[in-house]
Amino acid sequence: LVLVLHYLEGLSYDEVATFLDVPVGTVMSRMHRARQDLKARMTEMSDDEDRPMIPSEIFTQEVHAEISVLLAIGPNKPTETERLSVILRRSPERFAQLIEQTDEEGMLDNLSILLRRLGNPAIEIALESYFSGDSRTAAHASTVLRGFIAQCGSIRVSGWQTGMAARGAYLLADKLIQHPVEATPKAELLLEMIDAAEDDCTAVLLTNVLLCYAEAGFRLLMERFSRAGAPEDLYLSPHVLYALCRSGTPFCEELVKLFDSDDARKQLLALAGAEAM
After folding, report:
1. Which residues make Cβ contacts (< 8 Å) with residue 69, sequence separation at least 6?
2. 220 vs 240: CA distance, rounded Å
3. Is the confidence at residue 157, as pLDDT, over 70?
4. What 3-state class would DSSP assign to 154?
5. Which CATH architecture has domain 1-45?
6. Which of these, 226, 222, 221, lies nearest to 206 by C-alpha position?
7. Nearest to 224 by CA among 198, 182, 187, 253
8. Cα-trace Rg, the chain
9. Angle made by CA atoms 121, 127, 131, in degrees to the nearest 5
10. Which Gene3D superfamilies does the entry mention (predicted)?
11. What is the pLDDT of residues 19-74, one digit of tens each?
12. Burial of 8 (0-12, 13-18, 19+ CB in 10 A)
């Protein structure tokens, strides 16, 4: 019943609760159980083992994340509780306040999980929070964005030897490119997200964007390269080394300078960089 009222009839959580004369939290709980029951019934009725299903773990994560965030937004105002996408459309500042004010790592993780489904509006808010100029808010937004990128997988394309990054990574890259902030903060965020990426296609996409900010990006990459204590440390974040190799002549010129140094560590780093090239 709750699935029909919410998805077919288009009622909000609040309206479903009013119709059934139960608390909104009960509606959320019933919604979660109903989804699980529906999936179980579909599995039992299916004779086709190859029928694609929503990954149970991801589905459960999103449900729990939305419930937690909704309760955080209005724990004392259950009559105002609606779908998070509706709240975001009507009052985007409430999502921004969550990023800014929360000190709970678990809540930031929940926001990362929900970015995938909420899409552009939430991504824009997270970017605005990162570039807000407030160090605390920026750190929270960084956690959310890095968590989001870590979830982004890749899509296999028929006829391609390699895949491509998932849609969410492209949405984030597009909004970042369009943001009016100058190149250096963009490059800093891109480098953070490259480190966080667990999928190669996603990391390559972000690297492509980083290389568009040639001067700022190369400076940050070389700072990271030069801080390495030993050559093997370079491979703790191989995408950084990959990006430097793609920069071409500027990287080669820096390697020559390191080779001419009397510092053995710098010479070893230069050798590792030359081997990578």
Report:
1. 84, 98, 107, 110, 111, 114
2. 10
3. no
4. strand
5. Orthogonal Bundle (1.10)
6. 221
7. 187
8. 23
9. 145
10. Winged helix-like DNA-binding domain superfamily/Winged helix DNA-binding domain (1.10.10.10)
11. 888 898 898 888 888 888 877 766 665 544 444 445 567 777 777 887 788 777 76
12. exposed
Number of Cβ atoms within 10 Å of the Cβ of 88: 20
Q: Which helix (H) or strand (E) holds 165?
A: strand 164-165
pLDDT 10s digits, 221-260: 999 999 888 888 888 878 889 999 999 999 999 999 999 9
**Of 60, 84, 89, residue with least CA distance to 71:** 84
Residue spans per domain, the chain: 1-45, 57-206, 213-276
Q: Report residue 230 as tokens.
A: 């030993």
Rounded to two decimals, the pTM is 0.73
Per DSSP, the three-state class of 257 is helix
Q: What angle do CA 163, 60, 141 make, to 5 degrees?
A: 70
